[in-house]
Amino acid sequence: MLTVEKLDEIGARLETSPRKSLAQLAQETGVSESSARNAVQLLHERPYEITLVHKLNNTDREARRNFVNWYLHGVHAGEIDPTLILFSGEAWFHLGGLVNSQNNRYWSAENPMLIQEVPLHGVKVGVWCAMSATRIIGPIFFSETLNSQRYVTQILTPFFEQLSDYERTYAFFQQDNASSRTANNSMHCLQSVFGDRIISRGLWPPYSPDLNPCDFYLWPMLRDKVYGSNPHSEDDLKEMIQNVVFSVSTAELQRVMNNLFDRCDACLLAEGDHFQQLL
Predict the structure, then answer these.
(1) Is the pTM here over 0.90, yes or no?
(2) Which one of 3, 24, 25, 45 has the fewest CB atoms closer than 10 angstroms to its CB?
């Protein structure tokens, strides 16, 4: 039975060491694990996942502040149209290939000795997109790690074909600082279309997925919806990715880009450090 004194003890232990497992908590306080679970519910405690982020040094924080200040100043001064910034990114989507033993059960009175064959190398699909406040360009699929040559031929060339004349003339293009993106041939290709309207090395801060809508919105949303549909083949996977991307409304994109302003303000408030706790 959980007494008031035992609840107080459990609450105190959680406050001192909030990363305890229920098993540890039960062992330390001398109650069963089910009682420990009841206790944390009575104390209105909830388990939260820990988000892994890159450790930022002073140079990283300064780079983040510089980008945010450039962006906010440009928008407020009318030098940058926030609806004409194309944020880009890539992600890998895996199809099966892994069996979670905790989620694959076969209930029987006797062991049926079942096995499940899986491929040695699971099928995966590379996806690249660019998104603004008005639309998503892509998905553009690829199958190999992108070096500078593949980036130009497999990504940038089909991307340019989908740009409107207005975007070619006025839009800014953002990319990360990977060597394949900032190699001379990649930059020359981008400059032939966007001129000096490129947000990349020297302006885009490293370790900043929290400032890129592809990273903080598009990929998590896609994974939730695509994997929730349980694709069974590579073609299924690609079709589901396309369908989800095509279903994103302009209103949703505008909401995401408005959220970017909140993130920029939070980044400055955190002096360039991680700011999720401020959102």
Answers:
(1) no
(2) 3
